[in-house]
Design brief:
The protein is mostly helical and 482 residues long. Helix content is 75%, strand content 3%.
């Protein structure tokens, strides 16, 4: 007999309550794993407020300074490449704990650097931890999340990243203001820019502690034949629908337990890799080739170059990071309702328009020589339009390519290849990030209109790529991904 319209049954109420309790616990462990994303954002953005001071301290030219800034990205590519194999052998939690230790060493060491080369090497070391965290967080969150909320929980990685960026920029602003400039001495005879790096020690310790109290991934436990532990994690954090024994059977059927996993499993007919791996690589590359990290690495220098003061430039940069946080929250609300692919398409279209606007403004503005470089001079109206376009660009990225790519990378690969495929895709992402960051100073010297024109073309190409190659994953179980 149908009970439609009647009062809810007691069992149903209990089931609903239990489901909400499980989701709440899953949210907390996903948030703990995403702490790596916070450090990821903090480490990559903290350089923003220190670039000018490091240039003055070291006397480095554009190429060496760009390499020093981007050295963390090379380290990230290395960390991402090795995180997958280590995670498959020793577990997701072990990678988080190793990354936390490296974060701590890198942050304090960079703050105490004695030369531009030691700073570059320690930035590289910190980047290794960033790369490892960038791989392990989306994989872990996808593997512990129920399918119907996996997109929202996976988006916590990007939310943590943008909050990390915001806190780093806020720390940069506060420390520079307290010292009267990033290059001025603040505490213990150390300049403010050094304290910008050292401040990351606090969240590094928090990450290590949190990684020690969350459970291991049930997919990893099944792969290691630790079935009882996997069943307990599924029961406590994923729920009883389907029952853990059914879910474990599905996981077992999607993993060859007798075969040792390796990078060879990614081989395929198209240029040596499986098509799904190429899709992940190109998603990662396009996420960077639209130039988003130029905004977060160089925006303070950029806005100063076109006429804003150092203080105003830092305020604009902090405001941009707040915009990024708000749009990521919008993405979290939409991703499991609208889907991944529609958000990517909207984001690509919006970025094409806003980057094109910035390219036009910078490319047509009158110029003057500043410190030996040709610099555009923006009038009041052009300056407002440029700032507005930059923030709208961040809006379109933040609601789409920022969170959605990490969600897709965490869920689009099958259980058999997930850790390795995600490692390859993330390594490609960091390599692309390095290319963009390393080339921006030279491109900016050639003309900001050229730089943003290139990023606009990449945004347009990303639209075409998504429309043809990306499949929707909303609502599908990880065991269905093949």
């Amino acid at each position: 007999m149908s009970t439609t319209g009647g009062p809810p049954r007691e069992g149903a109420a209990i089931a609903t309550s239990g489901s909400e309790f499980v989701i709440g616990k899953t949210f907390l462990i996903a948030l703990s794993a995403a702490m790596g994303g916070f450090l990821f954002g903090f480490d990559t953005a903290v350089i923003n407020g220190a670039v000018a001071a490091i240039r003055q301290w070291s006397g480095a030219g554009d190429v060496l300074l760009g390499f020093s800034v981007a050295s963390a990205l090379l380290g990230s590519a290395v960390g991402a490449w090795f995180a997958g194999p280590i995670a498959d052998k020793y577990g997701r939690i072990a990678v988080m704990q190793i990354a936390a230790v490296i974060f701590l060493i890198g942050s304090v060491g960079t703050g105490l650097a004695w030369s531009i080369w030691s700073l570059t090497a320690l930035r590289f070391l910190g980047g290794v931890a960033v790369g490892a965290a960038s791989v392990i967080a989306p994989a872990y969150i996808a593997e512990v999340s129920p399918a119907h909320i996996r997109g929202r929980l996976g988006s916590l990685q990007q939310l943590a990243i943008v909050v990390g960026i915001f806190v780093a920029l806020l720390c940069d602003y506060a420390l520079a203001a307290a010292a009267g400039g990033a290059g001025n001495t603040l505490w213990l005879g150390l300049e403010a820019w050094r304290w910008m790096f050292i401040s990351m020690a606090v969240p590094s310790v928090m990450y290590g502690v949190l990684a020690g109290i969350i459970p291991e991934s049930p997919r990893f436990l099944v792969g290691k034949k630790r079935i009882a532990e996997a069943a307990e994690v599924l029961r406590r954090f994923v729920g009883n629908r389907p029952p853990p024994r059914v879910k474990i059977a599905e996981i077992e059927s999607s993993i060859d337990l007798e075969k040792r996993q390796s990078l060879r499993d990614l081989r395929g007919p198209r240029l040596g890799l499986l098509p799904i791996v190429w899709t992940g690589i190109l998603l990662s590359v396009f996420q960077q080739f639209v130039g988003i990290n130029v905004i977060f690495y160089y925006s303070s220098v950029l806005w100063q170059a076109v006429g804003f003061t150092e203080a105003d430039s830092l305020v604009i940069t902090v405001a941009t990071s707040v915009t990024n946080i708000l749009t990521t929250l919008v993405a979290i609300a939409l991703i499991d309702r609208v889907g991944r692919k529609p958000l990517l398409l909207v984001g690509s279209a919006g970025m094409t328009l806003t980057l094109g606007t910035m390219a036009y403004i910078f490319g047509t503005a009158p110029t003057e020589m500043v410190d030996g470089a040709v610099t555009p001079v923006l009038g009041d109206t052009a300056g407002v339009v440029a700032v507005a376009a930059a923030n709208l660009y961040v809006v379109f990225f933040g609601v789409s390519w920022g969170p959605v790519v990490w969600v897709l990378l965490g869920e689009m690969f099958s259980n058999r290849i997930r850790a390795y495929a995600l490692a390859v895709a993330a390594a490609a992402q960091w390599a692309a990030n390095f290319v963009v960051s390393e080339t921006f100073p030279s491109l900016a010297s050639a003309g900001l209109g050229v730089a943003y024109g290139i990023y606009a073309v990449m945004a347009l190409l990303s639209f075409l790529f998504v429309s043809r190659a990306v499949r929707e994953t909303r609502g599908r179980e990880l065991e269905e991904m093949e």
